[in-house]
Amino acid sequence: MYYNHNLRTDLQEWKNRLARAEYAQLGNQLNYFVNNVEGNKILHGFLLGLINQYNFDIEYFDVKFKDRGGVFHNTSYKNDAEQPAFCYQLLKYLHHLLGNYNIHHTHLFGSYDRAKNIIIDDIVTSIVYFFHDKLDKSNSTIYLLEKNKRRVEWFTKSNLASKYKNAQKEFEDILEEDLRLFLFDQGIDYPFSTPKSASGRTDIVGALDTEDPLIIEIKILDKDKGYGLNRIKSGFHQIVKYTEDYSKDVGYLVLYNFDKIRYDFRFNESNSIFPPKLVFNNKVYYFIVIDMYDGETASKLGEIKRIEITENDIIKPD
User: Which pTM was predicted?
Assistant: First the structure.
């Protein structure tokens, strides 16, 4: 959650550097902005998802620029996603055309001052706003899943664990129903159970009838049932398939841990920020562990076994 907030701050600073750039430095600062965006796995993944949906090639922009400075004239967009896709690919076209974004050497936009205003106010701002929207939605979901984690661990764990232990089958259904009810109470409309996709049935999809469905997969960690790393791996591979089926770039894996074990996710991204996240195939996957062990009290719990899980442990095939 805090990582996304930091990204928003970084994006604003990169944009501010453009605004402060003097004549000969605008191209360098624009190059700095693009390199930082493309160097961040999350932001770059968002962009690649856009390009897959809305592709504008060199020939397209060559035609647009025949009317000098008229690339924005008569340009309409199908939705809020197509505009940043257009703007990002326009930046790539300018790099192709000018080298290191040498805006001060071209008259494509007219005067230098006009070019700077168009680049910052029309092109870069559209991309930054798109990123802000994506990060805000992700933050909201992470906030709700973290809130549910605390709710269960602090208040409802004993009752939920008792239902789980007394069940004869369909163990995950008990946990899924509890999470769906919580999401509904928190304003997630229609948190459907097990909607069918090309890859099967995922556990929870919210806002399925919108352009931005929420996709959550639930797995149980319980050594008595043989549920351990194998369940984390299978849950991850399932959520990867579902994000592809629904053309999403973010997925959430919620793990209910009934063992006296702590799982430490050691991914390439920062480990100190909740929740751990893994960037794979230009998509972002969050892992939320809910500790369900209901044995001794905290004061009597003693030493807890810790299992370290790396990116390779999850991604590599069996």
Answer: 0.73
